[in-house]
TrEMBL record:
SMART domains membership: Lactamase_B
Keyword entries, A-Z: Hydrolase, Signal
Molecular function terms from GO: hydrolase activity
Signal peptide range: 1-18
Superkingdom to which the source organism belongs: Eukaryota
Protein name in the entry: Metallo-hydrolase/oxidoreductase
Keyword Signal part of the UniProt annotation: yes
Stretches assigned to the Metallo-beta-lactamase domain: 84-252
The organism of origin for this protein: Mycena venus
InterPro entries: Metallo-B-lactamas, NDM-1-like, RibonucZ/Hydroxyglut_hydro
């Protein structure tokens, strides 16, 4: 309530200023670039974004097959359809599959079937999100042992989804999957993209896996990859870098990642953090920003907040994007959405409240 009261102080000033004027046009200028928080306008479907840099290039995918299988050595393979990725490890006793993205779907069975005749005996969930494990029930026939973090079990327990069977084995901190000659180390370092999102490491092959945190060669997907806890997401970059790996499987984009990709995205997140903090701490004139909305929506504090958050995010995005165009793919595409998530995070997860902080 304190927060709303303080906002009203700005509101009253803004109402005075806006009195007798129509600010519909100014408002529209801000709204036009806001692509997720309002219904899309006709022009949104034909926006021409900046060309992708070569850093974003995917592996070449056979269009007839619709998938690519890459041999990472020592029995480890990664699979991608150009948008999603996962991995599987062929052991002397059976196959360990990590994740089952539904877009890859049956093609994952073909990828494995064309690599080995051994059955899938283990299925590991990176996290509970359906777009990464919604193909899990395709393995029902071979009754794999499903392994996941305890948080993932809880999140899958209700509501139940037959396409995402509940894990049989859960753990809190660390768990080592040993099947035949393969070893896959699972560890949990707190919530980041989601609660329960795991780090995985295959020591013999020096391969790391972390899903939906780093997007190699690309700016993050919308809202920082739909991150549930941005401080944890930020810290996850350093945790990932602490593993001794050569390549990592990211869950998205049609290529693998390296430590360089992790370092680069870490810089992007830090830059966004600083720019959004700067926007919140006096980076724009709040009275001017929310005045027209306040005038048109008296007493509607949600409308005031929408105007405030939108301008904060757009100010942050405008400050950040130019530095990343040509460095990370599609830095312009979700610039607003990523800045919006960072502004929210700074406010409620980092306590950077700008004009709404304790006086
Ligand atoms: C793509 O895959 C199909 C089916 O396996 C195969 O016949 C074709 O030769 C492949 N194309 C290329 C360019 O490798
Ligand atoms: C484990 O066995 C599989 C199947 O024989 C083989 O492809 C793979 O290279 C082996 N990996 C290790 C780490 O020994
Ligand atoms: C091998 O891949 C092809 C093409 O994707 C598929 O039709 C076939 O069923 C696969 N074989 C096995 C044994 O999975
Ligand atoms: C897969 O198996 C689980 C039990 O392990 C079951 O609850 C689920 O309904 C099955 N899903 C499908 C789609 O067959
Ligand atoms: C952009 O953000 C940086 C912090 O990253 C800040 O120092 C700078 O003043 C901001 N520039 C503008 C134009 O807001
Ligand atoms: C914000 O803009 C208003 C005019 O819209 C102006 O009166 C006020 O001084 C500005 N505030 C700051 C801090 O610049
Ligand atoms: Zn996810």
């Amino acid at each position: 309530m304190q927060l709303f009261r303080m906002l009203s102080v700005f509101s009253l000033a803004a109402v005075g200023l806006a009195c007798g004027h129509s600010h519909a046009h100014d408002e529209h200028e801000v709204v036009a670039r806001d692509s997720i928080k309002i219904a899309p306008g006709p022009s949104d479907t034909q926006i021409q974004f900046a060309p992708l840099p070569s850093t974003a290039d995917p592996v070449t995918i056979n269009t007839t097959l619709g998938y690519f299988v890459g041999d990472l050595g020592g029995g480890v393979h990664w699979v991608t359809d150009g948008s999603y990725s996962n991995m599987f490890l062929v052991s002397t006793h059976g196959v360990i599959v990590v994740d089952a993205p539904p877009t890859i779907g049956h093609k994952l069975l073909y990828a494995i079937g064309n690599t080995t005749h051994l059955p899938v005996t283990h299925l590991v969930y990176s996290h509970f999100h359906a777009d990464h494990i919604g193909g899990a029930s395709l393995f029902n026939a071979s009754h794999p042992t499903i392994i996941a973090h305890a948080e993932t079990f809880s999140l899958l327990a209700s509501p139940r989804d037959p396409l995402r069977p509940l894990p049989h084995v859960t753990f809190e901190d660390k768990y080592t999957v040993r099947v035949g000659n393969q070893t896959l180390e699972l560890s949990y370092h707190g919530p980041n993209h989601t609660p329960g999102n795991l780090f995985m490491y295959a020591p013999a092959q020096r391969i790391a896996l972390l899903i939906d945190v780093v997007f190699p060669g690309w700016a993050p997907f919308a809202e920082l990859g739909i991150a549930s806890f941005v401080p944890g997401l930020t810290a996850a970059h350093d945790v990932l870098l602490s593993f001794d790996f050569d390549v990592f499987v990211a869950g998205h984009v049609g290529r693998l990642g390296t430590k360089q990709d992790v370092l680069l995205q870490k810089k992007y997140i830090e830059d966004l953090h600083d720019s959004c903090a700067s926007a919140i701490n006096g980076g724009f004139n709040v009275t001017t920003a929310i005045g027209p909305t306040v005038a048109a929506n008296k007493g509607n504090v949600w409308a005031e907040f929408k105007a405030y958050l939108r301008v904060a995010a757009q100010t942050c995005a405008d400050n950040t994007t130019s530095r990343w165009l040509g460095v990370l793919g599609a830095a312009d595409v979700f610039a607003f959405e990523n800045a919006y998530r960072m502004v929210d995070s700074l406010r409620v997860e980092y306590d950077v409240l700008g004009p709404f902080s304790v006086s």
